[in-house]
Every structure is written in structure tokens, then in C-alpha cells.
Amino acid sequence: MGADATDRGLRLEGVRIERAGGATLLALDLAVAPGEVVAVMGPSGAGKSTLLAAVMGTLAPPFALRGRVTLDGRDVTAAPPERRGIGILFQDDLLFPHLSVGENLAFGLSRRVRGRAARRAAVEAALAEAGLAGMAGRDPATLSGGERLRAALMRTLLAEPRALLLDEPFSSLDQDRRDRMRRLVFARATARGLPVLMVTHDPADAAAAGGPVVRLGAG
Ligand SMILES: Nc1ncnc2c1ncn2[C@@H]1O[C@H](COP(=O)(O)OP(=O)(O)OP(=O)(O)O)[C@@H](O)[C@H]1O
Q1: Which domain of life does the protein's organism represent (predicted)?
Q2: How far is the CA of 44 from the centre of ligand 1 (A)?
């Protein structure tokens, strides 16, 4: 749609988040290339979650967004969240408890995949990709915390987002599971060429991502 290769990825251009009354919470310019992971760090209250909400399209009063958010050259600043093509993963897996693991993944699955057999195969392939082969029929409550997070990751990716936001997704895991989950998330995002914006308190997350670090300050 008129976008050239240099527009690819996620861009924040002259972005400012203001509180009602005009005080600025944060201001930044940022480009996240396809397959790149940018870590967002900073003290509590610096505006990390608010920044993700602005990119996702869920920013609410008292905050307002100035500037532009573009994805692969398309201006999505005013688009509703479901039209942005942006996926997000939180610390809590947010799987639906009344659906099986497979039904949870099928819920995320892009409508582009048509037909029962094809949809089932896509869900099975995603489960296998996350080391969860054979778990489609399980109740999410019977999975470990790490397994639930991996299922949530695949549900997000099955929607075929064009960018991925991470809001402290590893902080509930112990060290060993955290390492494995990081590797899985970064590998799957890179394989799909997704720009990734990751909010974290943990310098080891940023180091594992290997990309630039943006520090939001107090003020
Ligand atoms: N709905 C709201 N109404 C008023 N102020 C808010 C609202 N949501 C957040 N804030 C304030 O905006 C600032 C930024 O909040 P935000 O949650 O983005 O910080 P954060 O950097 O993600 O912090 P943490 O690391 O503690 O999660 C904080 O001072 C917070 O109190």
C-alpha cells in the first residue's frame, strides 16, 4: 500500500503521551525493525504499560496520544486495537478457563485458515512448535505455568500479528523456565519477522533479546 521496504516494522514518530491538563508522561521516537526485539525499561510509574497501551490502541483517559504509530508503513494511530494487527502477551496467560487448550488456540487462529481439518492441523502444529504436542484436549488449569504461557504465546501468534508486544511475560517464571520461554518467544518472533517491543524490569531479559534498550525516565 505504497509503503517501501524502509517503512517495514513498527515505528513511533513524535509520540507523546499526555495526561489530561497537558503534562507529558513520555515522549519518544522509535523504530523496531522486523525480527528485532527492543526492550523498554524504567522505574515503576515511568509509563511502560501506558506506552504499550498506546501502541496497542487501548490508551484511555486521562491519557491522550500525540504523534504517529505506523506498522509496515501503515498509519494505525487511530485504528481500533482489533484492526492493528498487533499481538500482545502479558505476565498472566489469560487463557479462557472454560475452553480446552486447543480451543484457546483455535480462538486466536486467523480467519484466513479455513475448514475444520486445516484449523485443527494449524493448532496441532502450533502446539508442537511450543513443545505442547498432544495437549489440545487438556483443561488449561491442568497445565504448568510455563506450559500455559507457551500456549498463550501460540494463541497470540496464530492470529498472525505483524508486531508483538510483551508486557513482562517472563516475570512469573523461575530462572530455568524463564530462559527457555525467552528463547522460544524470541525465536518464534524472529522466524516470523515480527518487530517486538518488550517491557521488562529484568536486565537479563534485555540482554537475552540482544537488541536496543529504551530507558523511560521519571520525567
Ligand atoms: N488510569 C489512570 N489514571 C491516572 N493515572 C494513571 C492511570 N494509569 C496509570 N496512571 C499513572 O501513569 C503513570 C504511568 O503508569 P504505567 O502503568 O504506565 O507505569 P509503568 O512504567 O508500567 O509502571 P510499573 O513498572 O510499576 O508497571 C503512573 O504514574 C500511574 O500511576
Answers
A1: Bacteria
A2: 8
- By most ligand atoms within 8 Å of CB, the mutation choice from 48, 92, 167 for ligand 1 is 48
Full strand arrangement of the beta sheet holding 213-215: 86-90, 163-167, 196-199, 37-41, 213-215
CA of 81 to the centre of ligand 1 (A): 20
- Give the number of the atom of ligand 1 that is nearest the alpha carbon of residue 168: 27
* 131-187 confidence digits (pLDDT tens): 999 999 999 999 998 999 999 999 999 999 999 999 998 988 888 889 989 999 999
Q: Which helix (H) or strand (E) holds 218?
A: none
Dist CA 12 CA 33 (whole Å): 12
DSSP 55-88: HHT---TTEEEEEEEEETTEE-TTS-GGGTTEEE
Topology of 1-85+161-214 in CATH?
Answer: Rossmann fold (3.40.50)
Domain boundaries, the chain: 1-85+161-214, 98-157
Return the ligand 1 atom nearest residue 199 CA. Answer: 22
Type and span of the H or E element at 39 = strand 37-41
Asked if the model's pLDDT at residue 214 lies above 90, the reply is: yes
Query: What are φ and ψ of residue 93, in 5° steps?
Result: -70, -25
Map residue 196 onto helix, strand or coil: strand
